[in-house]
Amino acid sequence: MTQAKEIKEAFLTGERALFMAQDLKIDDTIFDNGESPLKESRNIELYNCMFKWKYPLWYANNIQVIDTHWFEMARAGVWYTNNIVVKNALIEAPKNFRRAKKITLENVTMTNAQETLWQCEDIKITNLQAHGDYFLMNSHNIEITDLNLVGNYPLDGAQNVTIKNSKFLSKDAFWNCQNVTIYDSFISGEYLGWNSKNLTLINCTIESLQGMCYIDNLKLINCKLLNTTLAFEYSKVDAQIVSKVDSILNPTSGRIIARQIDKLIMEKDKIDPSKTIIICEKNKDE
Question: 90 near 113, Cβ under 8 Å?
Fold first, then answer.
């Protein structure tokens, strides 16, 4: 940014306090009671600021936000905004980031991430802690490293996703997804991955009831399935499992390699068992 004007140690209130602002560097400033303070803004740098009221960054472009925090009432904070970088932030407000593009989040904590990052594109996340349901719904082109998420229904409908070194405590994760690859991660929750296409898990640990069902092209490479029951129902699966599996139910086709399968259910009136190759050191039912 060239020749940016500076605002420092201000206390701003009222609706649209800096409406259509351009080329600003804002330091140590509080945006208090007043909606949409930076609506339609361009080329803004914020350092050590506080957002305390609704809709702070809507229809904005080229925004850099460092060491700045969203309080609980700064909800629906970043909507319809393009090219935003947020680093070292504590975000208490829900429903942040909606229909936005080119989002970078680094070292961010979201204490209420409910309905956050919906219908966004081109997202890069590094070291994010989040708690809330329906995280990253219907978003596309996502790169995630070191995400710890507690909340149900994350990434429903997401497409073109790469996740590394992350942890999920989440029921109904990764439903209706396409082209998702997860590396070196931990996922615990019921009904994982239903109705998805091209879901790949590599070096992951999974716990799930009725997990990984109704999936077209499911791949597991060097994964552990702990306390996982009734897995793979009506899925096309290629699985290399390095633990035992409690139970498998009616995969439609593919290959499953496991150390042990405690219960294998292949109902001939529902699927053709010959279409799935089962390889294991020990089958408890045998």
Answer: no
